[in-house]
Amino acid sequence: MRSAIVVGAGTSGAIVARRLVDAGVDVTLVEAGGYDTNPAIHDPSRAGELWHSAEDWDYFTVPQQHAAGRRLHLPRGRVTGGSHALNAMIWVRGAASDYDGWERDGATGWAWSDVEPVYEAIENDLLPVTGDYPLSPIQASIIDAAVQEGLPHNANYNGGTLDGVSQEQVTMRDGRRVNTWMAYAQPVADRLTVVTGREVHSVIIEDGRALGVRFEDGEELRADEIVLSAGALGSPVILMRSGIGPAAELEALGISVVRDSPQVGKNLHDHLLSPVIFTTSREVGPPQPGVSVTQTHLFWRSRPELAEPDTQPIHFSVPMWGELEPRGDDGFTLMAGLITPHSRGSLTLSGPAVSDPPLIDLAALTDERDVASLAASVRQCRRIGAQPALAGEWGAVEVYPGPEVAEGDVEDWVRRTAITYHHQVGTCRMGSDADAVVDPGLRVRGIDGLRVIDASVMPTVPSGNTNAPAAMIAERGARFLLEG
């Protein structure tokens, strides 16, 4: 029987494992974290408890030169379900032009016409995707305020047009989180070998072929096919510890070079957010069990000549103080968002051991176009909060940035407060060129029997949350593997 090791039980890995086992492959699914026993995973109202928890890899960037020298938190799931166990469950396909751009730039076979049927199949098969749930009163008013600001009310942003304010489509059922681990892998766990609490150090490679994986304690596990689904931060780290990466960087750390692949860990980029926080005279109230604290978002073009929206504010029913000084205990947040970043960063190793943390540099806001788009989104969120549906009906008062930050100072506010939307991609870019880390079939160039199937292969980040694209990539990647 053909055998495979899938590293990572997150969005992509759970799908790959299910599709392979259904095809009769002997699958071992390896997860560095444990099982999803934390009740906060399953109740959407408690998602905020998961940051910095045992289920979070709790990554931080290096100091970001263009973001006030701050180290940005990058929560990533270290648990069955991966980051889909921690996130807000928002399902966004993105724009058709995102995927046509991939195809145009060398990711042959990844155009919108290729991927749209896969999205439709996922949404009609195992994973529940719904926009049919009651809105919290404050969220309904945010939609009204956005319409008053001049935005269209878009009933289905996954229907071909992103623009407008919308209720989020989410992967939930009966007020409970549903992720790909729960929907795909867990139901067939008795047909899988699931290994938890074991971190993969590297891939075993002999004579140009991947033969297995090596754990942090040196133990080895072998199979016919190896799939890395450890995410945009985890997969390049494993490749580099395996000797696949920029040769000079690896040699400097004493890692024997198996294949000089200069783009491993490069092309790192992410969506960014910046908060606009309001207190209210009418009580919003605390999070309610089974109800996500974010239910609406919008897509908007900061410049009318843009072909697609470049911003995606996400709206929270709580004040998201973060590192800001709290100014009250009730309110809401319009989190301005940038979804077409031009800045590109990198991920490198600090050492060859599992215990050596990766050095993650998003190069956040290095490109002035990113600053301009995010600042425009902040200004729009300020205007929405001042509309009658919020200022009048709720007595909304902007406390951050607040009156002390003039319109001309918003760029500085963005640099001081920007955080990530947790949508890192690009570090194992796919393409047809010699520098691409994986080919369009997601095979690691120069190494037989090894594929990367996760968000790291995206050449550019889609226009929206990356969970849905990661699932789509997994379905296609599993099919490619089974077809040989």
TrEMBL record:
GO MF annotation terms: flavin adenine dinucleotide binding; oxidoreductase activity, acting on CH-OH group of donors
Domain Glucose-methanol-choline oxidoreductase N-terminal: 231-245
Organism for this UniProt entry: Microbacterium hydrocarbonoxydans
Cofactor(s) recorded in Swiss-Prot or TrEMBL: FAD
Keyword annotations from UniProtKB, A to Z: FAD, Flavoprotein, Oxidoreductase
Residues that, per the record, bind substrate: Y421
EC numbers: 1.1.99.-
Name of protein: Alcohol dehydrogenase [acceptor]
UniProt signal peptide: none
Binding-site residues for FAD, renumbered to this chain: T11, S12, V79, V200
Similarity section: Belongs to the GMC oxidoreductase family.
Top-tier EC class: oxidoreductase
Pfam family, one: GMC_oxred_N
